[in-house]
Amino acid sequence: MLLIKNGYVINPKRRREGYQDLLICGDRIVSARKSISEDFCRRYASEPANRAIAGELEILDATGLTIAPGFVDTHVHFRDPGWPEKEDVFSGCAAAAHGGYTSVVMMANTNPPVDNVKVLKELLEKADQAPIHVYATGTVTRKMEGVDPTLYTALAASGAAGFTDDGKPVMDEMLLKFALQQSKKLHRPIALHEEDPAYVGSPGVNAGSAAAVKLGLAGADREAEISLIRRDLELAIETGAPLLIQHISTAEGVELVRRARRKNPKIHAEATPHHFSLTEDAVLAKGTLAKVNPPLRTESDRLAIIEGICDGTLDIIATDHAPHTAEEKGRPFTEAPSGMIGLETAFSLSFRELVLKGYITLPRLIELLSCNPAAFYNLPAGRIETGGVADLVIFDENSEWSVEKGSFVSRSSNSPFIGEDLPGVIYATICGGKIVYSR
Does pTM surpass 0.90? Predict the structure, then answer.
């Protein structure tokens, strides 16, 4: 058994916060009250129904710390199968736990892609051995080529949490409409990467930015995102299907989602920490470490994303954790892959940019990081309640930590935030009642 004492508990699902002790037995929270004594724990453990799982009592003193539901990330790339030198399920889960995450949803753009039941089952079998909860998506199209639909029913029956060709847009409008219809029928959402290649002269840098000009690149025009978001929101409204717009980067995209959600509340959109923390200028300062798809854009876009978070238009914070090797990121800009890691810095960046700057409250941030993403994928996560699964994060909002290249648990260290001191220190991550990370 694990007794967590003296912590300040934030439970956004119940709209409650305050000092509480939490008693965990097995993988469940069995008691949550203002004070729980060791004597109460011994009596609980002695009951016949609890003896087999109670074990020895461990006490974790959380004085001065905050306890919240474990974070849930709807958008991670663990490169498994295909590129274990960048990340695999287990290193990715270790990085997630280090960042306070207890549940993650893996994208399907692996090698081979998750476009059939065999690959999906093999991946889920590996995920079953992971220290946190790992969910996998299937692709929208076979081989992510945008031509033929995958077998949605078979993938859903085998455990696919949803469908996405993330990394590539779905350009065939009729195919996407069919996929959305199947998504609604199967109660499995679709998540979309919105970048029309017709407007992308060179990926990873905003068209017209100082960085693009200096590098002599056409860049990725904002219309690449806007045009597809507009089209796909119309399809989602028409079909009534659940849809997630991934890693939104433009003010116009935020406004399109804002209007569309009034017509179909099943429409949601992600905000990534890098898109609300950085602008296109970071490419000049950080080079390929700031190369992402869609690219970092202007200050007005960054502020529009924050405004969308404040008014509820963007109700999920996701990392788009995209590990790459140092060798890959060391190549010339046009040859280096896009993407940055994010699991280990997401909470601190969100806390700094959104809470400490007065845009939202800490409970609201916890909601964006936990119960909202859990609700979208219908996951048993994002809440603290008696009888519920003991998935928790414990952090110190008053401490700082230094982002060093060697401080990452991920196999990769492609982050533009190296060298910064960030607020908010994760002290422990508990998944299924087990401490999976402890500072």
Answer: yes
Rg of the chain, C-alpha, whole Å: 21
Out of 21, 115, 315, 320, the active site residue is 320
How far apart, in whole angstroms, are the C-alpha atoms of residue 339 and residue 413?
11
Closest CA to 70 of 373, 275, 289, 272: 373
CA distance 277 to 342: 12
**CA distance readout (Å), 283 to 205, 327, 415, 421:** 7, 18, 12, 20
Give dist(CA 253, CA 292) in Å, integer: 17
| Token representation of residue 213 | 């000009």
For residue 253, give the 3-state DSSP assignment. helix
Burial grade of 118 (CB within 10 A; 0-12, 13-18, 19 or more):
exposed
For the chain, first and last CA: distance in Å?
20
Q: Which two tokens stand for residue 31?
A: 């008691």
Neighbours of 165 (CB within 10 A): 29
Q: How far is CA 393 from CA 38, 92, 361, 382, 438, in A?
A: 22, 17, 17, 11, 10
In the chain, the domains with their CATH numbers are 2-67+388-399+422-438 (2.30.40.10), 70-376 (3.20.20.140)
Q: What is the mean pLDDT of the chain?
A: 97
Distance of CA 302 to the CA centre of its chain: 19
The CA-based dihedral angle spanning residues 1, 343, 7, 46, taken in that order and rounded to the nearest 10 degrees: -10
At position 147, the amino acid (one-letter code) is: V
DSSP 3-state of 33: strand
- Model confidence pLDDT, tens digit, residues 31-82: 999 999 999 999 999 999 898 888 899 999 999 999 999 999 999 999 999 9
Phi, psi of 59 (to 5 degrees): -115, 130
CA neighbor of 354 nearest in space, from 235, 271, 411, 279? 271
Computed from CA positions of residues 140, 145, 151, 154, in that sequence, does the dihedral angle turn out positive or negative? negative
**Strand ranges (E), 345-405:** 392-402
Mean pLDDT of 160-185: 98
| Structure-token pair, residue 7 | 């912590």
CA separation, residue 245 to residues 121, 155, 260, 286, 331 (Å): 26, 21, 11, 27, 30
State the chain's maximal CA–CA distance in angstroms: 73
Indicate the angle between helix axes 299-310 and 251-261, nearest 10 degrees. 20
What's the rounded Cα separation, in Å, for the pair 68 and 60?
A: 15
Based on the residue annotation, tell me whether 320 is a catalytic residue of this protein: yes
Residues 6 or more apart in contact with residue 327 via CB below 8 angstroms: none
